[in-house]
Write a structure and sequence with these properties.
The chain is mainly α. It contains eleven helices and no strands. The N terminus is likely disordered.
Length: 354
């Protein structure tokens, strides 16, 4: 009987053994703890990706912003307005005489910034949308509630001090009850939309270009402040400065806390109180910043003070609760290994008679 010999060695490939199967895709998030501004600098990061995200975000916003035309179109059809197109256009553009339908449409045009920012970064960078909210991957609700408790008294004092310089005139606008309801329901989402884009999207997308976190912080804060102030449309230096205070405070709060919760809270509290005061006491027509809005040095200094105090309290509380501002390192998948060798048993064949 002749035994079959053991299998010989397999072919030798240049460069060593070939792994079993295709190599796994590297993670999108960094494999070491990173700041909020550097969450996109993972193994998949490429220098051109932030550039690609810009036109994609613009396209997504142009498409999603069509949602803001739905309320006036629905109301116009339901009430039978003779000129539906003209009614819709006036409703969307006349901020000096903003009615409830127009107010809903305006809020929707800003709320859609949330999916715009999330989807553009997810599509290009591969980082899941929840990491635009914070380094932990989502809104930290207990921390946001703490931020609300911190900043609300500061802004109440701020608004009360502003009213000491003179109550607005004109009284409540028509449909003031509906306007107040819209403020309570939609303004938090409107503020979140602006923060997700002007803080979150800008800080992460542009911050990915810089390997030194502090340098990135300086650049993205400057870009965020200029973009946010310019988007409001007023050329007045004191108005730009007052709006810029919110942008700077939001960037620094996001940097220290590793998320947008504090920035959203400051923004939402500010807008809700401004709207409530102007709807209740008068001045609703001037509640929105436009090309003809003028400011004063006193308003600018008050804005510096309230945002400075709010930011200082947020930094203090973040340190007190030990809030983490760094991401958890992602795990690199291991290369798949070849299946274990099977045991070999000699096979014999019986002799056959000649």
């Amino acid at each position: 009987m002749q035994p079959y010999g053991p299998p010989g060695p397999g072919p030798v490939f240049p460069g060593g053994p070939v792994p079993w199967g295709a190599p796994p895709r590297p993670p999108a998030l960094p494999t070491e703890p990173r700041r909020y501004t550097q969450l996109l600098r993972g193994p998949r990061y490429r220098w051109w990706k932030p550039l690609l995200t810009i036109p994609l975000a613009l396209g997504l916003y142009l498409v999603s912003s069509l949602l803001s035309a739905v309320p006036p179109v629905v109301v116009g059809l339901a009430t039978g307005v003779p000129d539906l197109v003209g009614y819709t256009f006036r409703t969307l553009t006349d901020v000096d005489d903003l009615q409830p339908v127009g107010f809903i449409a305006l809020n929707l045009s800003l709320v859609v910034l949330i999916p715009t920012a999330m989807l553009s970064i997810w599509i290009v960078h591969g980082v899941r949308p929840r990491f635009l909210a914070s380094v932990t991957g989502g809104i930290r609700w207990r921390w946001m509630l703490r931020c609300l408790v911190i900043v609300l008294p500061v802004w109440l004092v701020y608004m009360g001090g502003s009213l000491l310089f003179g109550l607005p005139t004109g009284g409540p606008p028509p449909h003031w009850g509906w306007l107040l309801l819209i403020v309570v329901v939609m303004t938090p989402f409107q503020a979140a939309g602006e923060e997700f884009f002007f803080r979150g999207w800008i800080m992460q997308n542009l911050g990915a270009w810089f390997s030194r976190p502090v340098v990135g912080l300086v650049v993205v804060t400057a870009v965020s402040t200029v973009a946010f102030s310019a988007a409001h449309g007023s050329p007045d230096i004191w108005v730009l400065g007052s709006i810029g205070c919110l942008a700077v405070a939001g960037c620094l709060a996001t940097w220290r806390t590793g998320g947008l919760e504090a920035a959203i809270t400051m923004h939402a509290v500010n807008n809700i109180l401004v709207f409530v005061v102007t709807i209740t006491f008068g001045g609703w027509q001037d509640a929105f910043v436009g090309s003809d809005t003028k400011g004063t040095v006193v308003e600018f200094l008050l804005s510096v003070a309230v945002h400075g105090v709010g930011l200082a309290l947020i930094w203090w509380q973040a340190g007190k609760v030990g809030l983490s501002y760094l991401s958890r390192p992602s795990t690199v998948p291991a290369l798949p290994s070849a299946p274990p060798p099977q045991s070999w048993t000699p096979v014999t064949q019986p002799d056959h008679a000649g």
